[in-house]
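Section 5.1 Outputs to date
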Amino acid sequence: MTATEYEYLRKFLRDHSGLDLSADKQYLIESRLLPLARKGGLSGIGELVQKLQGAGASALVTSVVEAMTTNETFFFRDKVPFDHFRDTIMPEVIKARAGRRSVRIWCAAGSTGQEPYSLAMSLKEMGAALTGWRVEIIATDLSQEVLEKAKAGIYSQFEVQRGLPIQMLMKYFRQTGETWQINPELRAMIQHRQLNLLHDFAQLGTFDVIFCRNVLIYFDQDTKINIFNRLARQIEGDGFLVLGAAETVVGLTDTFKPIPERRGLYKPNDPRAAAAKPAFAGAAPRVAVMAGR
């Protein structure tokens, strides 16, 4: 791979996915894209770049972006955000939404589904506190391939052993051979949609809780700021934003403020401005789930 080809791919990936590669990541591109090139009958990275620059390359564009996307995830990853969800977020949401008895949650980088399913299990574990509530979880990801896996809800023995308590495995999954499938009731709680965070997501409406973990670390500063500012327009004035352990809004935007002693947890900085937003008109179909049955 020549220096010119590498610079082209750096800009290509930044423009199409937000991925911001440093000048010394040639090895990463080669390890991810050489197998893709060979699978497509191409001689190497150079011919792959030529194809990307040609007409009718939309399918290849998608394949390249998905090959470079990191989809590392597991159930109840990092544990602390899910403790916050159980002990801080949902008690406040239940109190604040008692009148309308509904909650909307967005997993902005849902990957193969472990995060949204972890949230669904957490909600189920709340039992009677959510009986009769309308629960909506939207899980989005750039990659259609990982979304299809998430929809199926089928995981290997290795995957269910990563972070998933054994009692939840036995309660919410069914074993078939060497794989485990999450039960239909949990799968029905989640809507999976393809979405690039670089593009407009206003059509999703507003949310009480947004999980946007371990994805913005790959973006440059200007892209992070842009996404944070747009997330602020999609969250209720008293809602919650959850970021990954290595992510922060501090020094980037004043649209959110950290919650003291709650690592990774943020609130909109001006609830009055957020409260003035128009209500979600329901442009997209919604799934109603009665939690806690």
